[in-house]
Structures are given as C-alpha cells and as structure tokens.
Specification:
Elements: E1 2-7, H1 15-27, E2 35-37, H2 50-53, E3 55-56, H3 60-72, E4 75-84, E5 87-95, E6 101-105, H4 115-118, E7 128-130, E8 133-139, H5 146-149, E9 163-167, H6 175-189, E10 192-196, E11 199-201, E12 207-215, E13 221-226, E14 230-235, H7 238-247
Parallel strand pairs: 1-2, 2-4, 3-4, 8-9, 9-10
Antiparallel strand pairs: 1-14, 4-5, 5-6, 7-8, 10-12, 11-12, 12-13
Length: 261
C-alpha cells in the first residue's frame, strides 16, 4: 500500500480555501498513491458552529471528494460537517475512484468542547477493502476508546482490519496522549496505525502540533512530523504485517466480549 497524508493548517470556516489548498497539494504529489488521508473537519477546522458550515450530502465537498478520487485513482478520505435529517454529524467519507463510497459518523463526541451537544454520534464503524487491505477509519476522540478500535470480528479471534486510520483535530495540550495512544492501538491490535492531524492555530485558542504519524504493527514509529505542514507518502507492507502476525499470534489469546452501542 502506498499511502499519502496531508498535515496542513486549516482556514477557519472557509471550505473554498481549504478545498483549493488540498487540491493543489494532491495534484502536486510526486508519485501516484493508493490512499489519500485528510484531517478531521478538513473544510472548516474543528467547530461547534455547525449551522454555519454544514453541507447536505451530495453537495460541494462530497462532489469534490468524488472528483479528487477519480482524477488520482486513489481512495480519498477525511471528515467534514454534514447536515442530514435535521441533525448535524461529523462524517468521514470514504470515496473510491469509481465513485462508490461509504460513510462513518464519529462515534465518540468530545464533550469537553460540547461536541455531544452539537452533533449526533454514529452507531457503527466501517471496515473497507482496498488494494488487498482491510482498512478501518475512525475520528479523533475515538482514539481514546480501545474497545471501539478493537481489531476483531464478531464472535471470532480473526482480525477485522490491517490498517487503522484516525483523522483528527487534536490540540497540542494533549499531544502526549495522541502520540502514546496511537502506538498503543498499533501494539494491541497487531496493525498498522496512521494518525492524521492538523497544525496551526484556530480562533478558539487551540494550537495544533500535528504529530501525524505512521506506526507499524510492533508500535514502532515509521514517520512522525511535528509543527510543520507536510505532504507525506509512505509504502507499508502487508507481507511484513502477516509474517509478524503468524510469528506472534497474540490475537488468539484475546478476551471475547459483546459490544452494546
């Protein structure tokens, strides 16, 4: 898998400027890629002013994602504010080059910023197959909840996914937790983990150091970038992952459980 992530500053409440910025970065990629990952709320920054920025499905940002995927031949994914059935959701779109798509609505809403009072939380996660990989995309605060991220299929010790993605607007005040938990999720789930955060400052007084990272199945950091905008491309190996899982099958000793949502 050849993956790409875009760690950028974001224009506050300016979807046009953010889409233009990311489009320029995407079309300037030095080589083709299989997967392009954008941050959480990549069109606006992390905002509770949902009524001011929300879009219905199948409108401008959705169509832009569809265009980016078609023109690059890659899956493009990231979250933005969507209005649906009178509610607002922090929705990740998984857009394939052929126009097929899926959605994941953020399950764990960050109550300390009153996200739970503004948005409706999701009730199920998705695992998508792409280029022989099984990929599970989650959003920011989800990182703190290991049961939701657990790499198992229902009533089985089999792996559900090979790559765990977190898109985020995670402030620098809690960057130690971000860095530590990304590695923990990789180790406990015997999976690659990619965390994609933003940098810069927002009008709410939050500073973001990014610390976007690629972490392997042993918890080793293959790449991390702090406090700078970066377009990073990296190859990860399914063969290496499967070889490690065969040699260290800790999943066979995992506890079984039933998740109630």
């Amino acid at each position: 898998m050849h993956l790409t992530f875009l760690q950028s500053n974001l224009y506050w409440h300016d979807p046009v400027a953010n889409r233009a910025m990311f489009e320029e970065q995407i079309f300037s990629l030095p080589e083709p890629t299989d997967l392009i990952v954008l941050p959480e709320m990549f069109t606006t920054g992390f905002t509770m002013e949902a009524a001011a920025v929300a879009e219905p499905m199948n409108l401008t940002t959705f169509r832009w994602l569809k265009q980016m995927a078609a023109q690059t031949g890659a899956v493009v994914t990231g979250s933005y504010v969507v209005q649906e059935k009178g509610n607002y959701v922090n929705r990740l779109i998984w857009m394939q080059p052929d126009g097929q798509f899926d959605v994941y609505d953020k399950r764990h809403l960050f109550r300390m910023a009153h996200e739970d009072e503004t948005y409706v939380g999701g009730t199920s996660r998705i695992v998508k197959e792409w280029k022989g990989w099984r990929i599970c995309p989650l959003i920011c605060y989800d990182l703190r909840f290991p049961v939701w991220s657990r790499n198992k299929q229902a009533d089985s010790t089999d792996f559900a996914y090979d790559l765990l993605l977190y898109v985020a607007n995670w402030p620098s005040a809690r960057r130690y937790a971000w860095n530590t938990l990304l590695q923990a999720r990789a180790i406990e789930n015997l999976s690659y983990v990619v965390g994609v955060n933003r940098v810069g400052d927002d009008p709410k007084g939050n500073h973001y150091t990014g610390d976007s990272a690629v972490i392997d199945f042993k918890g080793e950091v293959l790449f991390r970038e702090t406090d700078t905008e970066v377009v990073h491309q990296q190859r990860i190996s399914l063969d290496d992952l499967n070889a490690f899982r065969r040699s260290f099958p800790a999943n066979l000793d995992a506890d079984t459980y039933t998740l109630t949502v």
